[in-house]
Amino acid sequence: MNFLQNLFAQFIGPNRSGPPRKLSRPRNHHVHSNSRRRGAYSKRRPSAPVIGFPVSKPKSIHNRAGLQQAKKLVAFHGTPDSTHAKSIFRDGWMVGSGNAYGDGIYFATDVQTAKSYAGGSGVYLKCLLFLSRTCNWDATTQKRYDGWCQKKGVASNNSAKTAFLIQNGFDSVRSGNVIVMLAPQYANPTAWKRKNKKIRILSVHRSGNDRKIRV
Of the candidates 105, 124, 102, which has an alpha carbon nearest to the alpha carbon of residue 114? Predict the structure, then answer.
């Protein structure tokens, strides 16, 4: 113990010889971090280039058939009798049969086409459609639809066209000035009348003079 005390007094304590000695402090090293705090030293390593295979886009029909994301569209629906319009207000829409572009509720983007379905004594409904996914039907879509029917082993008809579109994530289809809010066809369509939250009726007009009426 005395040996250690003497050694301490000789080199560090009061009995040491020579000028005062400063104790050396360890050198501070910069800390590499991504911190943005005031006073902190920040240094980032350069990111290495990523080498790999190119990422292919999903091969969904959405990327191939003119997908349009959610938009509003004013369209018109013609009917030959005002009582039909009253029924739509009360009970909802009915999916008709014999549709050229698939099963659903048919609208026209121009009022003259709606008037042609209403006739001189009928009425037309001015509506606001909320479209989330609309397929613009063209020759390319028709070709893919034909291949889909062949693969499924189903007949190419209106119901198959509706199934093809709905199963691929579409809620509507458009061809020229005709737009269809897709809905399956039922054997008893009158019993399946129902309101559609994506269709808002704005007003009802007489086909003969465009006068706004109440039903």
Answer: 124
- Residue pair 204/85 in contact (Cβ under 8 Å)? The answer is yes
pTM here is 0.63
Q: Is 134 helix (H, G, I), strand (E, B) or coil?
A: strand
- Tokens 């289809």 correspond to what residue? 173
Task: Strands of the chain (E only): list them.
Answer: 68-79, 104-108, 123-136, 172-175, 178-182, 199-206, 212-213
Q: What is the CATH number of domain 65-208?
A: 3.90.228
3-state secondary structure of 75: strand
Confidence of residue 58 (pLDDT cuts 50, 70, 90): very low
Helix ranges (DSSP H) in 75-152: 82-91, 111-118, 139-152
Burial of 46 (0-12, 13-18, 19+ CB in 10 A): exposed
Closest CA to 162 of 146, 140, 185: 185
Give yes or no for a contact between 133 and 171, defined as CB atoms under 8 angstroms apart. Answer: yes
The CA distance from 56 to 78, in Å, is: 45
d(CA 130, CA 69): 10
- Backbone angle region of 210, left / alpha / beta, with phi > 0 → left and psi within -120 to 50 → alpha: left
* Range in 100-104, 116-120, 201-205 the model is least confident about: 100-104
